[in-house]
Amino acid sequence: MSFTIALSVSRDDAEEAAAQLHQMVKESSVLKSISLNQYVTTFTVKAGMTKAKTIENIHQAVTEILEFLQTNGFYTVCGYSGEKGPVGLYQIGDSLS
User: Fold this and answer.
1) Left, alpha or beta for 29 (phi > 0: left; psi -120 to 50: alpha)?
2) What region, left, alpha or beta, does residue 85 occupy, with left being phi > 0 and alpha being psi -120 to 50 degrees?
3) What span, in angstroms and rounded, lies between the C-alpha atoms of 79 and 6?
4) Is 73 helix (H, G, I), strand (E, B) or coil?
5) What is the pLDDT of residue 50?
6) Distance between CA 19 and CA 17 in Å, rounded?
7) Beta-carbon contacts of residue 1 (< 8 Å; ≥ 6 apart)
8) What is the pTM of this model?
9) Cα–Cα distance, 51 to 56 (Å, whole number)
10) Are 33 and 6 in contact (CB under 8 A)?
11) CA–CA separation, 89 and 87 (whole Å)
12) What is the pLDDT confidence band of residue 96, given thresholds at 50, 70 and 90?
């Protein structure tokens, strides 16, 4: 079992940014993989052997991802158009808000 975290982010130098994202996932102990699809970046988080470990992995993954994006000049974009700006949409499981 694994969990995914999907974000709509971008940076002006897309090729270098993609390489850095892949390297970050490679160096992470809790991130399993990454998928880049136009303006949506999806991270797969490793599940733990216990519920507590899974929660810990998800928390660590969110922290690692956010710190990386903030320190490396990424910004929020619309997942459909790539337009820069705040996006108020999020999804947990199958529910969309």
Assistant:
1) alpha
2) left
3) 10
4) coil
5) 93
6) 5
7) 47, 54
8) 0.85
9) 9
10) no
11) 6
12) very low
